[in-house]
Amino acid sequence: MLMATLYSLHIFAVMVWIGGMFFAHTALRPTAATVLQPPERLQLLAGVFTRFFIWVKVSIVLLFVSGLWLIHIHGSFAKAGWHVHLMFLIAVIMTIIFGVIYAVPFKALKAAVAAKQWPAGGAAMAKLRRLVGINLILGLFVMVIGVSGRFL
Ligand code: HEM
Question: Whole-prediction pTM value?
């Protein structure tokens, strides 16, 4: 029962974080860019990311707690397969990138929206989009490693 719960929480967190980035990057932002003017678009995206990033924080905690717990149940880090080591490493890198996104372009985006500085908001959004794009690629890769690693 514990194993089932931990795996389910792990995959829930993967779904929220990677799925949310996939949706934002491939559907929401490009559509907002074509149908909304900068003031509406940047206010919408600042609001969307404010809500989404709460769930990203929850997902990161769930990923590390469930992942480390699974490693503990299976034995130890030393006994874990190469795919688990790679998963952990990439998850740490993704978490650092998220920290940068949160502290730099996201903060700048919110400040620009509050001050109605739309060019500055657009520049912050461009940086945020690039970093989310990197995290999305890393996330898709680590998801494949997580699922297929034990069979390779
Ligand atoms: C973005 C980060 C992560 C993603 C996308 C991810 C993804 C996955 C996926 C898809 C699985 C396969 C589950 C299954 O097939 O039932 C998995 C399993 C696992 N993950 Fe992660 N994971 C991430 C972070 C972590 C972290 C931080 C740890 C902790 C060190 C961790 C430890 C594990 C372990 C121990 C397993 C079980 C491996 C096995 O049964 O062979 N993961 N992960």
Answer: 0.95
Q: How far apart are CA 123 and CA 27, in angstroms?
A: 20
Ligand 1 site, residue 65, Cβ cutoff 6 A: no
Length of the chain counted residue by residue: 152
With the most atoms of ligand 1 within 8 angstroms of its CB, the residue from 74, 87, 138, 141 to mutate is 87
Integer Cα distance of 32 and 45 in angstroms: 8
Atom of ligand 1 nearest to the CA of 17: 1
- 36-61 pLDDT tens trace: 999 999 999 999 999 999 999 999 99
Domain residue ranges in the chain: 2-151
Whole-angstrom distance between the N-terminal and C-terminal Cα of the chain?
27
